[in-house]
Amino acid sequence: MDIPSELRDGYQRFRDGRLEAEAARYRSLATEQNPTTMIIGCADSRVDPATIFGAAPGELFVVRNVAALVPPYEETGTYHGTSAAVEFAVTGLNVAHIVVLGHGMCGGISASLAVAEDRPVGRFVKPWVELISHLRDELVDRVPASQPEKRQRALERMAIQQSLDNLLTFPFIADAVDNDQLSLHGAWFSIADAELQWLDGSSGVFEPIGSGST
Predict the structure, then answer these.
(1) Same domain, 38 and 26
(2) Residues 81-121 pLDDT 10s
(3) Angle at Cα 74 formed by Cα 83 and Cα 164, nearest 5°?
(4) How would you classify residue 161: left for phi > 0, otherwise alpha for psi between -120 and 50, otherwise beta?
(5) Residue 213 maps to a domain
(6) 164 found inside a domain
(7) Which range marks the domain in which residue 122 is found?
(8) Predicted TM-score of the model (pTM)
């Protein structure tokens, strides 16, 4: 079989290590899953939700895409991968929490800023990151190009809030939130510092969790 060696070796480590320790958990998960939390994260290889939250198999329901964006609710169109995952998590699994997890130096956010400067980005990436074009354009008008890091970090956080707002456009999510069956959360992860910041819903400020630099 043409399996990349790093994947074959990793699978063997899993068989020899984690599986041996959690064999009973995997057997119990074979018939059902009951996660209480859904994570909407970025596809970035450096930001793995299960690793960040120290989660065991079956504890998190995760969907990942470029920049951890959530599109607004719409009934038209054909392909709704993120929306389908959200629907299943809320109406099928009855999760109690949804966390939108953004991160530092996000390539999807960089792509959105690149579009504003007429720099080329991927054919499929461009229309996807246009989901936050109105935020980006407002930011570009407000923050000078001489401060690219400030633009980047600000848009990363603004995109998280936009995704939370878009989640509430889904009727089944709005109903669950109104009935206190579901809570929505925003978080941002610094790759360099391995620091997690949590969005305070009342102040709109991201605050570090536990120890770590700011």
Answers:
(1) no
(2) 999 999 999 999 999 999 999 999 999 999 999 999 999 99
(3) 55
(4) alpha
(5) no
(6) yes
(7) 33-208
(8) 0.94
